[in-house]
């Protein structure tokens, strides 16, 4: 496939999880590969289950992915959109993950408003907002006890190894009994999916770009490292895990596959 300069596939026999790492030659190829995979997952979910649930990532890297999605003709009434995390700002704030996704994708397609499930950020106490969103998830999936299974969760990763709003050495990393919790970024609250909810997904896809990610990636894929220091290491879904890296981020994997 054009643009792929390295592929490493791991099969975790005890859990049947398949982890694939692909190194793409540049950010354009990275986004094109993410787009192709995401579109395939959406189409498969609709074909097999009648609808697709997808949780979006924030940050700048996935913007062109969302712009590409906005150009597609899809059965939008069968697609439900969530977010893996959200900054605790109003929905029209420049830093809002919801605002970015609406501007680049959702406001440009005929998706029903009821199919968009933003994280609330209007409570005085972020913990109440987290509980409200968990209640919405449970109502949507119709299960008060088990962890819901989202079809596709898109994730980014920071230079420090955080993903969603699961930051190093924060309490959110250890939350096991909730679907949604309050994250903490330099004293500022954020709302985030918990590790158990992310790991229940049918497919988790990391989209990572930039040489600044190399050090964290080395720890995340090391045989021994502290997941409290590198939270993306905690993401080990039971089914599919994709790491899509541009060449700047994925030098170590390019070498391993050559």
Structure description:
The chain is an alpha/beta fold and 258 residues long. The chain has one domain (19-257): Rossmann fold (3-Layer(aba) Sandwich), CATH 3.40.50.1360. It is built from 7 helices and 10 strands. Strands 1-2-10-9-6-3-4 form a 7-stranded mixed sheet, sandwiched between helices. A 3-stranded antiparallel sheet has the order 5-8-7. Helix 1 (27-49) crosses helix 2. The protein is globular and about 40 Å long. 43% of the residues are buried.
Enter the CATH topology name: Rossmann fold
Tally the beta strands: 10
What is the alpha-carbon Rg in Å?
17 Å
Helix content: 25-40%
Mean pLDDT: 93
CATH architecture: 3-Layer(aba) Sandwich
Strand order of the largest sheet: 1-2-10-9-6-3-4
Give the oligomeric state of the chains in this entry, treating copies of one chain as homo and distinct chains as hetero: single chain
- Largest sheet report: 7 strands, mixed
Q: List SSEs in N-to-C order.
A: EEHEHEEHHEEEHEHEH
SS content category: alpha/beta
Brief summary:
The protein is of the alpha/beta class and 258 residues long. The chain has helices at residues 27-49, 63-69, 97-104, 126-141, 195-199, 214-220, 251-257, and strands at residues 4-12, 17-24, 52-56, 79-83, 85-87, 152-155, 180-185, 188-193, 203-208, 240-246.
């Amino acid at each position: 496939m054009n643009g792929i300069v390295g592929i490493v596939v791991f099969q975790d026999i005890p859990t049947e999880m398949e982890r694939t790492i692909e190194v793409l030659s540049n950010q354009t190829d990275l986004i094109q590969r993410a787009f192709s995979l995401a579109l395939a997952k959406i189409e498969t979910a609709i074909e097999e289950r009648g609808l697709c649930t997808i949780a979006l990532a924030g940050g700048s890297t996935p913007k062109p992915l969302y712009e590409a999605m906005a150009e597609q003709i899809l059965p939008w009434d069968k697609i439900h959109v969530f977010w893996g995390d959200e900054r605790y700002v109003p929905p029209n704030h420049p830093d809002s993950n919801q605002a970015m996704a609406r501007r680049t994708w959702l406001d440009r397609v005929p998706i029903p408003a009821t199919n968009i499930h933003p994280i609330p950020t209007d409570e005085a106490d972020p913990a109440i907002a987290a509980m409200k969103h968990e209640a919405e998830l449970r109502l949507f999936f119709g299960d008060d006890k088990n962890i819901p299974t989202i079809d596709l969760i898109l994730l980014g990763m920071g230079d420090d190894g955080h993903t969603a709003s699961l930051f190093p050495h924060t309490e959110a990393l250890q939350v096991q009994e909730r679907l949604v919790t309050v994250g903490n970024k330099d004293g500022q609250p954020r709302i985030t999916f918990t590790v158990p909810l992310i790991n229940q997904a049918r497919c988790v896809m990391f989209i990572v770009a930039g040489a600044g990610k190399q050090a964290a990636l080395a720890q995340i894929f090391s045989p021994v490292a502290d997941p409290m220091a590198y939270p993306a290491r905690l993401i080990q879904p039971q089914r599919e895990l994709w790491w899509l890296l541009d060449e700047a981020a994925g030098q170590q994997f390019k070498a391993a596959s050559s």
